[in-house]
Design brief:
By secondary structure, this protein is of the alpha/beta class. The chain folds into two domains: about 170 residues, Rossmann fold; about 240 residues, 2-Layer Sandwich (Dihydrodipicolinate Reductase, domain 2), CATH 3.30.360.10. Helix content is about 35%, strand content about 25%. Strands 7, 10, 11, 12, 13, 14, 15, 16, 17 and 18 form a ten-stranded mixed beta sheet that branches. The chain has a six-stranded parallel beta sheet with strand order 3-2-1-4-5-6. Helix 4 links the parallel strand 4 and strand 5. Helix 4 packs parallel to helix 5 and helix 6 packs parallel to helix 9. The chain is globular. It starts with about 35 loop residues before the first strand and ends with a helix. The N terminus is likely disordered.
Length: about 450
Amino acid sequence: MKAKLLTAALGSMFVLNQGCNSSKEVGQDKKPLSLIVVEPGHFHAALVQKSMYADVDSVVHVYATDGPDVQAYLDKIDKYNSRPEEPTSWAEEVYKGDDFLEKMLQEKKGNVVVLAGNNQKKTDIIKKSVDAGLNVLADKPMAIDSEGFELLQEAFSSAEKNNVLLYDIMTERYEITNTLQRELAAIPEIFGEMQKGTPENPAVIKESVHHFFKYISGEPLVRPTWFFDTKQQGEGMVDVTSHLVDLVQWSCFPNEKIDYQKDIALHSAKRIPTQLTPSQFKTVTKSDTYPEFLQKDVKDSLLNVYANGEMTYALKGVNARVAVYWKYQAPEGTGDTHYSIMKGSKANLVVRQGKEQNYKPVLYIETVSKEEDYLKKVEESFKAIEAKFPGIALKKITKGWELIIPEKYDNGHEAHFAQVANKYMEYLKEGKLPDWEVPNMISKYYTTTSALKMAMEK
């Protein structure tokens, strides 16, 4: 997939400004990338702009319906611009109106569309944006049902035809224990061979627990009421699980293409509701009542949100289980948690984030191998990790080893958005994505949307 490139004198600058009208005066420096933020209904839209980028223009063109969603986004940008340490300098040019999408496509004032909002609209906006020759960086999920998956496939075909890059924001690849788990699984002397497991006893398990009420950038998060409507947000099976399915693919088969028609076999899928009281709903949305579109999910005054999902499936013969659960609020001193295990012939690689770990993710190498010189092999092979990630060390424990990870590698979930954006900009410079990324994105959303379909049919 080739992006539209204009070679600069030094060979390092790139331009993707077709159809891009700058509001700056003629003669002023114009950065090669210019953001178009469309209908920012999720706080992830603002997190993409928590940092500045060398190749991104400071003027951001925003198109949205008028209301609290776009205002919450703009308030976060104002906060980033005015913070005392490392303030950003975004200049937001905002168009508000019901015809926001038509207006954006008509004007095309930038060349990278950023999407993070109502998922019911998202796939259609993606398709129309790439049809118009615009690059798209989209928050997950890019599709929330089987019909959306079909449209997303068309969008990828259109992106290839129009020489633009469509990419989703997979922040969890940048969480250090996930990164190291993948790195260790690629070292045969430590991990051995990936086990196949069974549907009842999978070789790979990834589970995460999230919370509706939380703090973002130091302030209580106010969620839009539509976030609790699975017709608009998507069910748990297709939302956060997109991260977990991505990690299974990315960790077990690094840099390998996955063919969803041949390599994936679904075993089971289950959907479960989380119940919220009226007072909890008001706390997290600031809404006194359930809106009409949520009445279908209200029983005995409790709101039933199908935010929880579990699925088991085989990926190239490796049996995996992924599950996501949503609760109202984490206990004091805790937060969202993650559990992951990859089973190898010599060791299991396990990420735990419970009370024993002070609710911080910790990676363990738990020995399975009976080799007499296994300890020596691990310590010798681990030198490659130490060279790539200076400061990371092994601590011997009863079951094997705990990885000691310096705080500099734990930069937090919010920082991962800038890491994804920077990686995406590298791809824009190169004019292409890695050849495995598009087929694996398609496979990921096939897995999640097919699991939802299976669970709904049950």
